[in-house]
Amino acid sequence: MDIEKRIARLESEAEIRRLVSRYSFDVDDRELERIAALFTIDATVKSADGGMIATRRDAIIAMYQKRFSILGPGVHYTHDHCIDLADFCERRATGRVTGHAELDRDGEMMVCALRYDTSIV
Questions:
Q1: CA-CA distance, 121 to 118, in Å (whole number)?
Q2: 37-71 per-residue burial string, b: 16 or more CB within 10 A, e: under 16
Q3: Would you call 121 helix, strand, or coil by DSSP?
């Protein structure tokens, strides 16, 4: 692989890491317009337990509005990133991010382990 392609891969990976950081900050700050900008119009968000599922940007934002109405303040922290750019020529990435969140729910503090499985096209 030539140097230009290697640099492009590194820049793509750095941008994906920034996307994950923006997500954490925007969710914590309840910035619905910024959260919406993180997703494609036809994105799907779903949790492993089925408690959260939405397809299309407007439904995703409605889902977050509902979640925010029952949760107090929270802080998300990301830990490990595993980004796979195997399909780099096709401008596609998949990956996993681990982390945790410290949340207030009904006046009680909770610490939750998180794992995000992602696909970016």
A1: 10
A2: ebbeeebeeeeeeeeeebeebeebbebbeeeeeeb
A3: coil
Over residues 7-28, the pLDDT tens digits come to: 988 999 999 999 999 999 999 9
Amino acid at 11: E
Report the alpha-carbon distance of residue 17 to residue 80 in Å, rounded: 10
Nearest to 103 by CA among 75, 69, 66, 62: 75
Q: How far apart are CA 25 and CA 112, in angstroms?
A: 17
pTM: 0.86
Strand partners, 119: 94
* Structure token digits, residue 50: 């089925």
As a whole number of angstroms, the distance between CA 76 and CA 35 comes to 14
Cα–Cα distances in angstroms (integers) from residue 39 to residues 34, 73, 120, in the given order: 9, 23, 9
Instruction: Name the token pair of 1.
Output: 């692989």
